[in-house]
Amino acid sequence: MSPILHFYVRPSGHEGAASGHTRRKLQGKLPELQGVETELCYNVNWTAEVLPSAEEMKKLMWLFGCPLLPGDVAQESWLLLSSSDLLLEVGPRLNFSTPSSTNIVSVCHAAGLEAVDRVETTRRYRLSVWP
To answer: What is the pTM of this model?
Structure first.
């Protein structure tokens, strides 16, 4: 079975406004909600027999990052959870390959990353609530 590699993208400045909007919408239904943080996660299906080399990892991190924000991609989540937080991950069904996956895979292949055969993007939400 092919491993799924996860690349987490740190929220940028414009996502703060989106998180505020999401928080205001959710507080009507969940009054104990204190805050919302988000991040993107690129879920990469890696088909090679071995895990990516350091050079391949460098390419993947570069492809999923923003050139104006160096260091914004990590293999560990940026969202630090406490015991009262709720983590939600929203994305496509795993049995359906999206058009964006097809495009991202084409870019990966052009960069010499032939072992990538699917990349699905999900948005992760950390909901902070009163304990």
So the answer is: 0.86
